[in-house]
């Protein structure tokens, strides 16, 4: 399943209710790129997020032929820096139109001053080291608790939790990490059992 990063392109004439609605829909991690103008400042103030001002977003009377590509590069640069945060761009109507033509040429502007663009992104990386360490800890806990519950119960519960998380958008990496932990735990447990069988005096 393809995941997407949200880019919100906002005109500096956005109404207060549009700004409030946008603010309520933003995720916990967000970067706001803004033109250094009074109109854009009004919108950014309503978003209640510390902005990053860039002169490239300032209105120009005679835009260069490569302005659209430079705007696109600016936005993508901030988006790629953290593919799991929302990006908000606030600028004048002409700059917004030019940016949308380059950033999302197949998408028509939405009604109102706010247009949402979805950029494909890869899945979150799986924390392999933490998963391996967690597998070792899981094996240890399962062995220690085997006198109370069967040794396979805890790994089975973690396995089920991992399978459930695989179905949750944005949590697949956690599900994969749990599955890796279970695999490591099973391998460690089998090695421990094999070792105790070969060297019974060591236990």
Automatic annotation (TrEMBL):
<keyword id="KW-1133">Transmembrane helix</keyword>
<feature type="transmembrane region" description="Helical">
    <location>
        <begin position="151"/>
        <end position="170"/>
    </location>
</feature>
<keyword id="KW-0812">Transmembrane</keyword>
<feature type="transmembrane region" description="Helical">
    <location>
        <begin position="128"/>
        <end position="145"/>
    </location>
</feature>
<feature type="transmembrane region" description="Helical">
    <location>
        <begin position="177"/>
        <end position="195"/>
    </location>
</feature>
<keyword id="KW-0472">Membrane</keyword>
<protein>
    <submittedName>
        <fullName>Uncharacterized protein</fullName>
    </submittedName>
</protein>
